[in-house]
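[Meeting: bench + compute handoff]

Bench side (C.D.) handed over the final construct sequence. Compute side (W.E.) agreed to return the predicted structure before the next meeting so the bench team could plan truncations. Sequence as handed over:
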Amino acid sequence: MTQGLRKDLRTGLIAIVVMTIVLGLAYPLAITGISQVAFNGPANGSKVSFDGKVVGSHLIGQEFTEPVIGKNGKPVKNEEGEVETQPNPSYFQPRPSATGYSGNVTFFGNAGPNSVEAREEYREELKAYVQLNKPYDKSLTREQVPVDAVTQSASGVDPDISEANAQIQAHRIAAVRHLPLAKVEELISQNTDNRSLGVLGEPGVNVLELNISLEEEAPLK
C-alpha cells in the first residue's frame, strides 16, 4: 500500500467519524434540545389532556366507538376473538381511516376514480353515515353528505372534519346529549380552525377537542 493511498484512507475514515459525530449525534441532539425548549408541545406530539389524563393528540385523529352488544347482553366478538365495535352516537365521529387511526402508521387508502372497489367502499361508508345520522335529522339525504364523511384523508389520521360534516352530526349529538342544537353548533364554531394563513385549505373542526368540549358541557353519566 502506497503512502498516498494510506493517507487517503486515513482522511476518509476521519471524515466518516467526524461527520457521524456532527450529523449523527451532535445535530440531532441540538435540534431535539431546541425543540424541547422552544416548541415543547408540538415536539412531544401535541398531546391533549382531559381531567388530568392524556386522551389523544391535536394532530392525530382517533375513533370514538363502543362495543356491539349481542342479544345475550354481552359484547359480540369476531372470528379472531376481538370485540366488535360501532360508532358511539354520543360523540362526533371522524372521517374513515384505513388504519383505524393508529398512531404508529399513516396510510392513504383511497383508490382511483374508476376503481370498482373504491366505489363499493364509498357506498358502504355513505350508507353507514346516513344510518347513523338520519334518525336524528329526517331531512338528511345522501346528496347532502360531504365528501370527507365517506373518504379517507391523505394521511389516514386527519384529526379534522369539515364544518358541513359536523353540522350534520350536530343533530344526533343534540338529541343524545339532551342539548339545544344551537349550543352544539356553538361548540362546533369554538373548535373550528380557520384556513392556514387565511387562504390555504378549508376550515376544519378538530373532533377530539370538540368531543372534550361536549364532555365539559354535558358529561355522560
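W.E. noted at the follow-up: The chain has a mean pLDDT of 84. C.D. will use this when planning the next construct.
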